[in-house]
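Pilot study result, target chain (510 residues):
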Amino acid sequence: MIDQPVSAPVRGGVRPPPVRPGAGRFLVLLVVFVCAACGLVYELELVALASYLIGDSVTQASVVLSVMVFAMGVGSLLAKRLRCHAAVGFGLVEAALALIGGCSALVLYAAFAWLGEARYALVAFSLAIGVLIGAEIPLLMSLIQRASRRGGRGEEDAAGTVADLFAADYVGALVGGLAFPFLLLPWLGQLTGALLTGAVNAVAGGALVLWLFRRDISPRARWWLLGANLAVLAVLATATALVADFEAAARRAVYGEPVRVAVHTGVQEVVLTGAEDGPVDLFLDGRLQMSGGDGDRHHRALVHPAMRQGPHARVLVLGGGDGLAAREALRHPAVRSVTVVELDPGMVRLARTDPALSALNGHVYRDPRVKVVYADAFRWLRGATAPRHAYDVVVSDLPDPGVTPSTKLYSQEFYGLTAGVLADGGRLAVHAGPVGARPHAYWTVESTIRAAGFATRPYRAPGRPDRGFVLAVPEARGVPPAPGPGVLGVEEERPGDVPPSTLLRPRYAD
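Predicted structure:
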């Protein structure tokens, strides 16, 4: 399918567009703006979903960006073959981009849910989307030059055209980059947001070619392009209508149990599986945080060793929005206050209201001794509202350190800030991830705590799943007390010199 010569001869061999040159130029730049916004949304959506499904957002962002930039160069070279048929070529490129980019999140999630692996799909989509985005600019350059001519006459200012084109492209990228986290993701979610972006992409590209450049395309080519765009829009609309059913089926495939609660809190996805009167499995962003009755064993091992010896009237829990660490702290009669610093109000709301989870945490949020502070733990410790030397026990109940957003909460700087809120004789207890499954990450946590000026005692909870912890006291106070019965020391497993993790040198990637 190629552009056919028009039947009526025109001066210079070029058919003028149906609008004045200035208006035609503006319409092309407007479509450049829209397409750039859509392209960046596809890119950010791949990075966000890959980080959620695979983990380690730094690695996933690097893979997506490097593959896409390489593919954009390939696409620019391939577009040279279409310059003589720029209108039809651009129409086909935008239809393909709308379909592939719009469906990318859906297919990526399906690969993760049913195949258990999304890396290959991630690279394939990054490559395909990059090729199509790279093909846009050369074709748009041809179209904007054509739209600016009047009757085939006139010299174009090439430098000015390039400047206008890239200005529209960069501004569109800015809008798309801001729209994704602040509008599409919180309002529509990743799947529907990507599908809607694809629809906008198809309408903008198809409308430009089928109206502004209709005189440059044969009737047969126009019908083919119209049919292709309508088919793409039909696919995207059908997928949008089925998103809820797809998400429910995919969750069943991922979690293996009937999903009783699944909410996007604005901070993370929280999923509860199991019956209201039975064991509860808690998942945060697809990662298992608590399995069945394991919550008792995990949180007993985390909290009680720090409470056994020394004062423990004032307890600070960093993270722990599920209320289980606070529940264990309140089992000690001498506790007068428990402050929970939790980033996600939705998690606390669920821990208050869900029958199974609130029963599991002993309705801890009804206890007047419990105070909740909604804040990022790092910022709160650094801010003026965190009381200095006020807590006898600090419990760090945060996601595993291998999850990139949590890396700063396992840094030397973070533990240095934590030392500032510990009272004289205070103890720090840290959930440090699995000892056996991820020994490098576990021992990096232990090394990082020591580098922040603590003496440490590493230990684990027996049984499965593997849970590792670190009990620490300020180095000036000597060695931490033995963690007590029910846990196993692992000091003999400590490897050689393990570098600590800092904000500028995170070291948790295995």
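One observation from the pilot: Residues 298-493 form a domain with the Rossmann fold fold (CATH 3.40.50.150). A full batch analysis is planned for the follow-on phase.
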